[in-house]
Every structure is written in structure tokens, then in C-alpha cells.
UniProtKB/TrEMBL annotation:
<dbReference type="GO" id="GO:0160147">
    <property type="term" value="F:tRNA pseudouridine(38-40) synthase activity"/>
</dbReference>
<feature type="domain" description="Pseudouridine synthase I TruA alpha/beta">
    <location>
        <begin position="8"/>
        <end position="70"/>
    </location>
</feature>
<comment type="function">
    <text>Formation of pseudouridine at positions 38, 39 and 40 in the anticodon stem and loop of transfer RNAs.</text>
</comment>
<feature type="domain" description="Pseudouridine synthase I TruA alpha/beta">
    <location>
        <begin position="109"/>
        <end position="210"/>
    </location>
</feature>
<dbReference type="Pfam" id="PF01416">
    <property type="entry name" value="PseudoU_synth_1"/>
</dbReference>
<feature type="binding site">
    <location>
        <position position="76"/>
    </location>
    <ligand>
        <name>substrate</name>
    </ligand>
</feature>
<dbReference type="InterPro" id="IPR001406">
    <property type="entry name" value="PsdUridine_synth_TruA"/>
</dbReference>
<dbReference type="GO" id="GO:0003723">
    <property type="term" value="F:RNA binding"/>
</dbReference>
<dbReference type="InterPro" id="IPR020103">
    <property type="entry name" value="PsdUridine_synth_cat_dom_sf"/>
</dbReference>
<dbReference type="InterPro" id="IPR020094">
    <property type="entry name" value="TruA/RsuA/RluB/E/F_N"/>
</dbReference>
<protein>
    <recommendedName>
        <fullName>tRNA pseudouridine synthase A</fullName>
        <ecNumber>5.4.99.12</ecNumber>
    </recommendedName>
</protein>
<feature type="active site" description="Nucleophile">
    <location>
        <position position="18"/>
    </location>
</feature>
<comment type="similarity">
    <text>Belongs to the tRNA pseudouridine synthase TruA family.</text>
</comment>
<dbReference type="GO" id="GO:0031119">
    <property type="term" value="P:tRNA pseudouridine synthesis"/>
</dbReference>
<keyword id="KW-0819">tRNA processing</keyword>
<comment type="subunit">
    <text>Homodimer.</text>
</comment>
<keyword id="KW-0413">Isomerase</keyword>
Amino acid sequence: MAKNPVPPIIVYGSGRTDAGVHAIGQVAHFDFPFDLPVDAVYKGLNSMLPLDMEITKVEKVSDQFHARYDVSGKKYVYRMYLGQFQNPFKRNYTGHWKFPVDLEKVNHALKDLIGEHDFSSFVASGSTAKSNVRTIYDASAQLDSAANELKIEFYGNGFLYNMVRIMVGVVAEIGSDMRPEDDIPRLFKVKDRDQARRTMPASGLYLKKVFMKVRIQSTQLNYLSGRIVGFILETD
């Protein structure tokens, strides 16, 4: 996009993903000074991207829209391969858990994460957040027997540095009887990152969807100039 632009084009994303984390539903916007057909913008962007990224949709939006500040929530999914050894074909796209895990216990533990809490025990050092209070609207796990994967999904108003990967580690340990079933309320009280222990690998984490405060609507214009939003699929 920035090949000889006048003026330079700055892209604003809904948030950052750590190295190794994937995105199925990333959202970004930029101000576009040229008149080009919608299809030309879409094809032009994709022609310049590496093969591990794809723009899935491009739309024109209001100048008031902001991909970061208009976010009302995000949904993440963590994919965990179950087995004594990691599947080599999935090593870059799943985490790995070699212990027997009880799905019912995992889902019971996930219910304790729902609601507004201080997630100080679930944030890695290096976080720049002013507050560790976040709200989880929903959290659930399902077993994909065909893929031999445990998939854990979180929907919340925001997530701290490594928060999802730490939560997954805690509920997996509960599901494998490495922790008491009621350990999450205790972790909220102690506010001690060390007691949450492990951080699951980035390879299993996916940003699934970004929710906006206002509905993103495309226009019927044949040409686009102004603020553009792109929907991005990427893997790292």
C-alpha cells in the first residue's frame, strides 16, 4: 500500500498479535487518497502480501470509524493437539497437551473465568495495561475427536498480554487433575502470576473475531476514496 503514496498511508489495526499467534478475523483501517474500484483495492492489496496473509474483504467506512478504538470485544480460540507427541504437521498451528484431560472439568473451570475480574494472575510481565480488570462474556471448550484437538474459545471485552495462553494452561491443568477444580477463584484473590504457572505456546492461539461498537457497512459506491477497512486472515 505504501508504494510511492502521496501522502504516506498509515494502517491502524484492532490490536497486536504476538509472534506465532494467528488471526482469522483481524480488522484494520487506513485513509486512502486515490479513486480506485473496490475490486482493484482488494486485488492490489493481496498482490503485495506474503503468502501467509490474505485480505478477505475491503469496505469503505465513515471517517469516524477507528479499527482500534471502536472495538467492543474480541473472540479468541486456542487449539490444543492431544497426544503423547505433537503432530509434526500441526506444530505451527496448535499447542500440545500430552496428558489425559476431562472435558467436563475444563468447561466447569471455564465458567469461573466468566464475568468481570482482576486478571493479575493471568498476565505476563511486560504488560503495559493500566488496569488488569477485564470482562469475559463467554468461555467454552469442545473436543474435536476427528482432529484429536481440544478447542477452547474465549469472548471478552479485552485481553491482557498472554492472558488467553495463561488461562488455557490453568484450565488444562484442572482438566488433567494437576490443580483443584476450584483453583481459579483462588488465583483471582492472590493476584500472583507465578501461581498460574505455565503459558501455553503461541502456535495454538487464533484471533477469531473482532466486535465493533458500530456495525461496519459497505457503501454502494463504485470507487473508493476515504477511510477503508480491511478484514485480514494471517498466520505466523
